[in-house]
Amino acid sequence: DIVNEIRKNKYSVPRVERIMLGGSMMPISLASEIREIFNVESLYNCYGLTEVSGIVMFSHVGQ
């Protein structure tokens, strides 16, 4: 888990403009941690079909 690894080792992380995550629904607590650690401007949760290899739908977290 990248969030735990960054916290455990106290890595310095630069600001990230956009992060797109997929695979399953993201808990609000994880979204909050990601926003805090990466100082991210936009965080998206993406969904798609494995067999078509593309994003079918994505939404801005918080909407």
Automatic annotation (TrEMBL):
Domain of life: Eukaryota
UniProt cross-references to InterPro entries, sorted A to Z: AMP-dep_synth/lig_dom (IPR000873), ANL_N_sf (IPR042099)
All residue ranges annotated as the AMP-dependent synthetase/ligase domain in the record: 9-58
Name of the molecule in the record: AMP-dependent synthetase/ligase domain-containing protein
